[in-house]
């Protein structure tokens, strides 16, 4: 009976703090979650309503990136908020592995999206004559669909293998979500599941990071050699926004998932996980919009049209 109960459910320890601090975190994370949803939904609606932004490939990627961020933060935050209201933190085996899969699927999709956006900026700045043809609306849609599809399939094999392992020891996971830490609860032999998972982490995280680094590196070299001061300044302003988002994502993810599992202390893992699952999705829309004149102009146009419509009504 004991083995059956452990197999059927896991216990997430969460943050291991007192009731008062749990309430403070609950209020803070709820506020952050609502703001994150509002920011990303605003970007999606803005790109959809403004015809000028809708015609630009970069904002086609940004609209899908905002949708991805909504899904990404929703894959972890509601469960985390629920556990802050409960002292048990019990999650079923099926729900745990569903969160595990969705979390990795969306995380890998974000890595591919960042590479697609880096490719878009490379073509726009380094090959402006070919850019309209290569980054046509149809090709953009194919690239976006490819990012979603590859992200969806990338971790299907390792997570399926992990879900078939036996969990016969402790069912307590010192985390607030289900991720690769589940391997520490599995009974030997683990087979090839840890190696395949680690290999996919290396391939997806480091592979995309190298691609993004090379793309922006070439862009910076081209811009330094450019004699047009105004266009160079504008281009630097645009790619600096992208580089900030890339740094936020890979700065927290790379060290955590490329390192072999079990090498990092649990409190450090929790802090880093909070950063890229909660803080980063909140900051990304602000980074893209606050320093972006095109977004500000589009927002002004949409607000003026809305005001005119309201007056007519």
From TrEMBL:
PANTHER family: G-PROTEIN COUPLED RECEPTOR, OLFACTORY RECEPTOR
Residue intervals of the G-protein coupled receptors family 1 profile domain: 39-288
Membrane protein topology class: Multi-pass membrane protein
Membership in a protein family: Belongs to the G-protein coupled receptor 1 family.
Organism field: Naja naja (Indian cobra)
Keywords assigned: Cell membrane, Disulfide bond, G-protein coupled receptor, Glycoprotein, Membrane, Olfaction, Receptor, Sensory transduction, Transducer, Transmembrane, Transmembrane helix
Signal peptide: none
Single GO cellular component term: plasma membrane
Record Pfam families: 7tm_4
InterPro entries recorded: GPCR_Rhodpsn, GPCR_Rhodpsn_7TM, Olfact_rcpt, Olfactory_GPCR1
Gene3D superfamilies: Rhodopsin 7-helix transmembrane proteins
Record-given protein name: Olfactory receptor
A molecular-function term among this protein's GO annotations: olfactory receptor activity
Coiled coil segments of this chain: none
TM ranges: 23-49, 143-167, 202-224, 236-259, 271-290
Protein origin, superkingdom: Eukaryota
Cell location: Cell membrane
Main location: membrane
């Amino acid at each position: 009976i004991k083995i059956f109960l452990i197999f059927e459910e896991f216990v997430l320890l969460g943050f291991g703090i007192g009731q008062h601090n749990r309430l403070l975190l609950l209020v803070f994370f709820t506020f952050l979650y609502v703001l994150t949803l509002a920011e990303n939904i605003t970007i999606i609606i803005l790109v959809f309503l403004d015809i000028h932004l809708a015609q630009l490939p970069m904002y086609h990627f940004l609209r899908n990136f905002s949708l991805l961020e909504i899904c990404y933060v929703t894959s972890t935050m509601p469960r985390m908020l629920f556990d802050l209201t409960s002292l048990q933190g019990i999650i079923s085996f099926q729900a745990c592995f569903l969160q595990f899969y969705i979390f990795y699927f969306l995380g890998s999709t974000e890595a591919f999206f960042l590479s697609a956006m880096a490719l878009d900026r490379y073509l726009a700045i380094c090959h402006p004559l070919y850019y309209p043809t290569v980054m046509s609306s149809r090709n953009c849609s194919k690239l976006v669909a490819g990012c979603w599809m590859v992200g969806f399939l990338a971790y299907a094999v390792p997570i399926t293998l992990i879900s078939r392992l036996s969990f016969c020891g402790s069912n307590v996971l010192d985390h607030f979500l289900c991720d690769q830490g589940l391997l520490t609860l599995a009974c030997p032999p683990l087979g090839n599941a840890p190696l395949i998972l680690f290999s996919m982490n290396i391939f997806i995280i480091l592979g995309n990071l190298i691609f993004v680094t090379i793309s922006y590196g070439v862009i910076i070299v081209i811009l330094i050699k450019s004699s047009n001061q105004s266009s160079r300044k504008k281009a630097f302003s645009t790619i600096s926004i992208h580089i900030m988002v890339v740094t936020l994502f890979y700065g927290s993810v790379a060290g955590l998932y490329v390192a072999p599992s079990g090498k990092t202390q649990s409190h450090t893992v929790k802090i880093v996980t909070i950063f890229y699952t909660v803080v980063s999705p909140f900051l990304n829309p602000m980074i893209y919009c606050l320093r972006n004149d095109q977004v500000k102009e589009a927002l002004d146009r949409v607000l003026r049209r809305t005001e005119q419509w309201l007056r007519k009504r």
